[in-house]
Every structure is written in C-alpha cells, then in structure tokens.
Write a structure and sequence with these properties.
The complex is a heterodimer of chains A (585) and B (200). By secondary structure, chain A is an alpha/beta fold. Chain A contains 23 helices and 23 strands. In chain B, strand 3 and strand 4 form a beta hairpin. The chains are: A alpha/beta (585), B alpha+beta (200).
Amino acid sequence: MHKKMAFSFPDEVLEHVFSFIQSDKDRNGVSMVCKSWYEIERWCRRKVFVGNCYAVSPRMVIRRFPEFRSIELKGKPHFADFNLVPDGWGGYVSPWIEEMAGAYPWLEEIRLKRMVVTDESLELIAKSFKNFKVLVLSSCEGFSTDGLAAIAASCKNLKELDLRDCEVDDLSAHWLSHFPETYTSLVSLNISCLGSDEVSFSALERLVGRCTNLKTLRLNRAVPLDKIANILRHAPQLVEFGTGTYTADVRPDVYSDLAGVFSSCKELKSLSGFWDVVPDYLPAIYPVCSKLTSLNLSYATIQSPDLIKLVSHCPNLQRLLVLDYIEDSGLEVLASSCKDLQELRVFPSDPFGAEPNVSLTEQGLVAVSLGCPKLQSVLYFCRRMSNEALVTIARNRPNFTRFRLCIIEPKTADYLTLEPLDVGFGAIVQYCKDLKRLSLSGLLTDRVFEYIGTYAKKLEMLSVAFAGDSDLGLHHVLSGCESLRKLEIRDCPFGDKALLANAAKLETMRSLWMSSCAVSFAACKLLGQKMPRLNVEVIDERGPPDSRPENCPVDKLYIYRSIAGPRFDMPPFVWTMDEDSGLRL
Amino acid sequence: MERRVNYENDLNLMATELRLGLPGCGDDEPQRKTNPSIRNNKRTAPEISEVSSSESSSSVTMSGSDDQDSPPPAKEQVVGWPPIRSYRKNCLQSSKRNEVEGMGMYVKVSVDGAPYLRKIDLKVYRSYPQLLKALENMFKLTIGAYSKREGYNGSDYAPTYEDKDGDWMIVGDVPWEMFISSCKRLRIMKGSEARGLGCV
C-alpha cells in the first residue's frame, strides 16, 4: 500500500505541483510530509529565506538546496537600527558570498537585511554570477561606491538595485557611469540613501534614458528639483518615483515644467523623497495624486495645512508615511478622505524636545482607526495616550496586524487617569485577533503581559521597553504567546527565573534580545550549557562578564536558535555561552 | 533580596491561578504603586541600578557630542530612544539647522597646502566679492581680482569649484545664481597651478 502511494506520482508531477507553492512556510511544511517529498522539494526550491544568518551555515544551506536562484539573509537583531548593537557585532555576508560563488554560478537574486557587506563581496558577486538580476541591500553597511561600480560594470542582466537605508562610503560620484552604454535592463533603482557626493547627474539621466523598462526610481537627496523634470521626461512609464531635495527658489518656469512632466506620468502610483520641501512646489504633483496608492512624506518638513491639502487629493491612498506635522486635524482629514488606507506611519519631528511642538495626540490615531476600515498596520509616535483611546481603537479596528505605538517619554501613564496603560494594550491584543506585531510603550505593569500571554495567540514579534515589574511579565509572554518568533526587550526588570523556566520556548523562536535587564551572568551560562541548540551571546562592552560577580546582570543578551553551533567571528565584547563556557572565557 | 522572595511566592501562585477573565475584572494581584508623574525622567528601573556594580556605559549618553553644530540637547537622552533610525535623526538635525539658518547650503572648502578642510554656507553670501572676501578671511590668504579673460592671473591663489557634473571650474565664470546651484565643493588652488585650468 505504501509502495503504491510512493510511486503513484512521478517526481516531475510533484515538482510541478510544488512550483505553485511559493511561501517559505508552506515549502517547509511540504518538506516535512515524508522523506520523498523532502527530497523532491529540496531539489526544486528556488528561493531560500534565512531569517538569522547565524542559525545555519552557508554550507548547510547549499547542501540542502542545490538549485536555488534567490537567497534572502538577515543579520543583526532589529534593535541594531537604534544603535543598541555595538559596531562589529557581526552579520558578515562574505562567508555566504564566498560559498555561493563557488557552488552557484546561476544565482540570480540576493536580498540582505542588516548585514555587513564589503566591496570585496560586491566584486565577488559581480564576477561570479553571470545571470545576476536582483540586489537588495536593506539597512546594510560596510561597502562603498567602488563596490557598486563593480556591480554596475559587470552585471549585464541586472534588473534591480535597491539600497534601502544603507550606510555607504562615499568615494566617487561616478559609479553610475560604470553601467555600460549597452546596458538597458534596469527595472528598479533605489539610491535614496546615498550621500551628496555619490551620484553624477548626467550619468543618471543617460541611464534612465536608455532603460525603457524602468519602473521604480528612487533618487537621493542630492538630486535637485530642477533635475527631476529632465529625468522624468526620460521615464514617463515610472510606477514608483522618489524625488531628491524638493526645494528651489520659486520660479514659474521650473514649476510648470515640473507639473507638466508629472502629468505625463500616467502610471505613477508611489511617491517618496521630498526632503526640504517647499510648499509652493507641491501642487506640481497634484496631477498624479488621484492614482497614488503610496506616499512617503516622512522627510517633508511642511506644516499641517499643506499636508492636508495634499492628502485630500489622494483618495486612493493605501500607504502613508508622514511627520507629526500632520497633527490631529490632518489625520481627521485623512480619515475622511482615504478610505482605502491600510498602513500609516507617523514619525516625530522633534523627538528630543522636552515639550510637544505639534498638536498630535492620541486623537489622531483614534480618528484614523475609526475612519479607515482597512487600516491594518500602524506605527505612531506621540506624547500622550489613554486607555480609553486604546480601547476605542481596538474595538473599532480589530483587523490590525501590526500595531506599534511609541509614546515618546518612557513610562508615561494614561494622561486622563494616571494609571498604567495595561488595559488599553490589553484591549488591543484581545480584539485584534490577527495581531502579528506589537510594540509597547508608556507606563506598563506585569498586567499587560498577562493580557498579551492570554490573548495574543498569533503574535509573532513583540517589542518592549521600560515596562513590567518582575519576571512574571516575561513569563506570561514566553508561556502564553504560541506564535512568538521574535522578542526584543530593553530596560525591563526581567531576570533569570522567567528565562530559565521557559528555556525550551526559546528553541521555538528565532531570537530573543534583552538589554539593560536583570539577567545574571550565571543564568546565561546555565542556559548556554543546558541548551546546545541555542546560541546564548553575552554582549558587554564593560569587559569580560566573569570579571564581575556571577549574579551581576549582563549588559546585553542575544539568544537565538541555531543548528550551526557557536559562531567564530565575534568581536572581543561578545561571548557565547555553551557547554564549555565556564572554561573558554 | 526580599523582593526576590516575594516574587517566588507570586510565581507559584500565579502559575496555578492565571485566569482568562476579561480585562478589568477585580483581582488580588498586589497593585504596583504607580508613579503619577507623567513626565518621568527615570532612565533605568531602580532594580537595575541597585544590582549592577557600575553604570553601564551604554545606557545613558549625552546627545550632541558628535555634532557640534546642533543646539544643546533639551535633556539627557537615552541610547536608542525614542526608536528612530540614525538616518532619520540626522535628517531631522539638518532640517533644524536649515530652519534656524534659513536653508543653509554647506560645501567643503580645501586649500592647497592646508591639512584641514573647512565648511562654509554658500547661502550666506549674495555675490562673488562677498564670498571671496570671506574665503580670504577664513584662510588668511589673498585671492585677488577676477577677470573674465584671465581668471585670477596674478594672484597667489585661485578659487575653483567642482560642479554637479564633476568638472572643476574657475569661480566667477558663471552667474552667481547658477554657481550657487551647481557648486558642490570649493578648492583654492595655488596660483601657479590654476593657470592651467580653464584657459581657453
């Protein structure tokens, strides 16, 4: 009976069926059905996703998936975005590039996030992969325009070059000129993170002119307003466009030129850039506003009236990123104009000021939650919040999948009742049953974690800061949140007990970050010894943890599951706790 | 230490009594005395400062230490809080500078023979003579007169600039407004070298 089943479908048929299964999770599921499915699946997996580059070694990946075309790797923990991970911690992509260069001449796509990328690696990519098509570097660092020049020069089939939020060393503005004159395949170019000396405009114009398939172009701040018209004239087919600095002396000829050129971009759906915006030039984009689905004004330092005018022209907006200059009044207009809104991010214009500089409060978020039925993803910085507002939001918008609230002052209580915000966030997790990502802020006790552990069953990522009273808080989360994959905590009084009691849980998660908490060195050692499939990293710039008493808390702790064992590329301020950790220090 | 003992009791209790009641129903958990002040400047929980033997150097830092141009910080800042990426923080700072100084336009200035670069705000000047005077003052040198035909012939130093296309030009050839919008950086060359530049 078994044999009949195994031979009833030839491999090719199964492969064909599997080709319709794209998601990583589903692919992993398929591979666990039986040995023969595992075998067939591994030979036909074309896209590999490695959420933590230290969870597995390059060789292991290559051994299991002999024919992938696309790889996505993530390196540093998320809190590295906020300078909590010291420089030199790790996340080097070179071992991966080196292994793949030998094994995979047909690799087409590399996507990296929070990794250290060197020029040598970029040169190796350019040299090794003849059909290389897509390079996406998100929040990466360690390379210069020389590396980019190598990619431009050698990758004849490059379709996508996307540098998002990277730190690039400026060495030469002329790397763009390394794209040969015969090169025309560019579809997507994002250089928005490059500094002022890193782009040559004439090369850019020529490149844009000859790449007729270009759909996405995001320029950097250095490109002045008067250059945009020429560039857009060469690329009226653009779907996504990011301006450079959007400022110039107001001149009618420049304005009408710009407005005219925007009118001819019939496919434009997404706009970004807008550094240093001068309001007088904003109406130039009105011709495209009715089709816009995505608008990133998060660098636009313009005031609420101008923002309101703009937003009122965009009824089909699905995604808006904006500074808190929009204020509550602007968000109310947004709520009534943009019924398709799915994602909203409101960033602070003056995060370090002691007093609020704009009138943006919890009211704005309430208005949008009430008015926008499709809203599912929110990132909101504000200075005050109430349980009442959060409960209202939760009741009216149970479809939230991502809810990240940052009340700027740590431990801020409910401004109406002076109570902790436990009940408010509790309502969020209770009503929003599909919540996958949550960031907490404000005054919070262990109670909020009890709610989270009880209700947040689909929660995959939780970010916590300055919250909780005791280990109980952490225990609630680790024991209750069944889908938890990533947990990042800073400045909370969580210590050894909850961590050790839930050690097994850590193997079901991608990673746990704890900094400025109360986990002792002794507990870290114990965890490292008992859990061989976890890498327990102690990060401490004060010096070796064993130079202090064992019950001293460590500064930073990063725990992640791994089948690759401890890594060996650690800087002097990182120690891995393992079976021999007592001896190795 | 006492706190730890209390906590252990709590954990045992709670392990058996975790309830699935709706939020807001009465319970017998000891209510933490909440700090009523909204503006709470505490940076680390008190438990942490009791336990650690030395203040972690990474938990508190003064802002503005790496950026002399920004105004003094409103208060001490915590590392990584609020959670905003560096790029955005830098943009905010430079926007503030612009607001304060009226859309400044800083370019680097190098002088042949001097070890350090300087930065000047081109928006501050309205004309070439003003700019040249400022450069002379800043670097303690003489630039002399510009002539359309001969540039700065006869001067010890000649100011040049790199334009948007990456070419090096003599300062003064194009109208001021055009210069302002295309100048990326300045280099003050020794007069002898400058004679080879831009002579038609």
